[in-house]
Amino acid sequence: MVKLMLALDVMDKNKALEIVKETSEYIDAIKIGYPLVLATDLKIVKEIKELSNKEIICDFKVADIPSTNEKIAKLTLQYADGIICHGFVGEDSVKAIQNIAKENNKKVIMVTEMSHPGAVMFMQPIANELAKLAKKLGVDGVVAPSTRPERLKEIKEIVGEISIISPGIGAQGGDLEKVLRILSNDDYIIVGRSIYNSESPKESAKMYKEKLKNNF
Ligand code: O7E
């Protein structure tokens, strides 16, 4: 079954903990990014891991020189099960993160093409090359857009067995039915606002889980 990753982009600690408690029976993984960590601190990652016992991926879209990437990865992977990085900074920068992740048995997920409209400007023209780099480096997952199913399909064909983490369903208007025809077991959709901003995050997470179970 395709997995459900909750993007927990709220900026209030109590709200974050509440949403995790409410939705945890329907979600497979939680993505924590800058909004929540900057509003609280990195220890929120540990707290949510302990509360939920789910896979926790830190979305810091790390994009620096190797030695700085290494420091960010070390700090993040003390608590998180995986970290998201950019590939456009080059092979050495991604490898630096992979080295830290391997020592700790953690995941590295690399962005190829992003889901927002502006990603067609600079990212889309190099996204297939980034996907090839992801495959060469053997990263644990790649990010590819649910908002452009034809691009999602192309990137999936390039990376083969590597798992896809796909944002864009819900608030960004991605078509879940089309996306589910492309994704396979152990790929993920990422859903944020249409769960945490809905009247009932629990019901919304349940609805997505059921759609994934029934393959729409
Ligand atoms: O649109 P939402 O509210 O469902 O949230 C989507 C989440 O996925 C949000 O955290 C955003 O930062 C993230 N995201 C994208 O929306 N598009 C991308 O191309 C990439 C990401 C992302 O998470 O990158 C790393 C996986």
Structure description:
This protein is an alpha/beta fold. The protein has one domain: Aldolase class I (TIM Barrel). Helix content is 49%, strand content 19%. The protein has 11 helices and 8 strands. Strands 1-2-3-4-5-6-7-8 form an 8-stranded parallel β-barrel, surrounded by 6 helices. It is globular, with a radius of gyration of 16 Å. The chain binds 6-(ethoxycarbonyl)uridine 5'-(dihydrogen phosphate). InterPro entries: Aldolase_TIM (IPR013785), OMPdecase (IPR014732), OMPdecase_arc (IPR047595), OMPdecase_AS (IPR018089), OMPdeCOase_dom (IPR001754), RibuloseP-bd_barrel (IPR011060).
Architecture blueprint of SSEs:
Elements: E1 3-7, H1 13-23, E2 29-33, H2 34-39, H3 43-52, E3 55-62, H4 66-76, E4 82-86, H5 91-104, E5 107-111, H6 119-122, H7 124-137, E6 141-143, H8 149-159, E7 163-167, H9 176-182, E8 188-191, H10 193-196, H11 201-213
Parallel strand pairs: 1-2, 1-8, 2-3, 3-4, 4-5, 5-6, 6-7, 7-8
Helix pairs in contact: 1-3, 4-5, 7-8
The structure holds 6-(ethoxycarbonyl)uridine 5'-(dihydrogen phosphate).
Subunit structure: Homodimer.
Catalytic activity: orotidine 5'-phosphate + H(+) = UMP + CO2
Protein name: Orotidine 5'-phosphate decarboxylase
